[in-house]
């Protein structure tokens, strides 16, 4: 299943819809602008919060924390050594890890688990400006989590570019 995500142009605090392949609203990314840290909620079309993700306040490297129903789900941070491509590690609460690699700022990257492709994020196959696709490859994968991971790594990469 492929989801279409409009790129945020104005920064956090913006709300934007993620649509499915048929153009139906599937998820809402709700940016919380009046918080001390960058905070987002991923909601279903009825407004129910599915996933909450926010920047960790006290961390040596920029880190995003992903929670579901108030319980930790994942921690996302950039890997230390990554020269040509961006590499992020997603440490899941169950002890397993997802690997995110590619050109994040170009919206051309993949999410893998143990070398197996879970999702491919790309704007190459789309004709709509400022839009990228999140193609969830495995049927048993959690699309809300994979979309949250994509939004988080893009947010972290953009923050890092701003700081440079």
From TrEMBL:
Xref: InterPro entries: LOR, LOR_sf, Tubby-like_C
Identification of the protein by name: LURP-one-related family protein
Similarity-based family: Belongs to the LOR family.
Gene3D superfamilies documented for this protein: LURP1-related (2.40.160.200)
Organism: Streptomyces fructofermentans
Highest taxon, organism lineage: Bacteria
């Amino acid at each position: 299943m492929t989801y279409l995500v409009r790129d945020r142009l104005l920064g956090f605090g913006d709300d934007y819809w993620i649509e499915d392949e048929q153009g139906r609203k599937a998820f809402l990314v709700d940016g919380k602008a009046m918080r001390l840290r960058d905070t987002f909620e991923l909601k279903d079309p009825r407004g129910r919060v599915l996933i909450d993700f926010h920047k960790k306040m006290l961390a040596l490297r920029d880190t995003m924390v992903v929670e579901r129903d108030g319980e930790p789900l994942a921690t996302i941070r950039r890997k230390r050594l990554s020269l040509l491509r961006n590499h992020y590690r997603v440490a899941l609460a169950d002890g397993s890890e997802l690997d995110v690699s590619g050109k994040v700022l170009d919206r051309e990257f993949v999410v893998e688990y143990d070398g197996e492709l879970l999702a491919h994020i790309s704007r190459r196959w789309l004709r709509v400006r400022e839009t990228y696709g999140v193609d969830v490859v495995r049927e048993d994968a959690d699309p809300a989590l994979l979309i949250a991971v994509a939004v988080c790594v893009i947010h972290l990469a953009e923050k890092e570019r701003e700081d440079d």
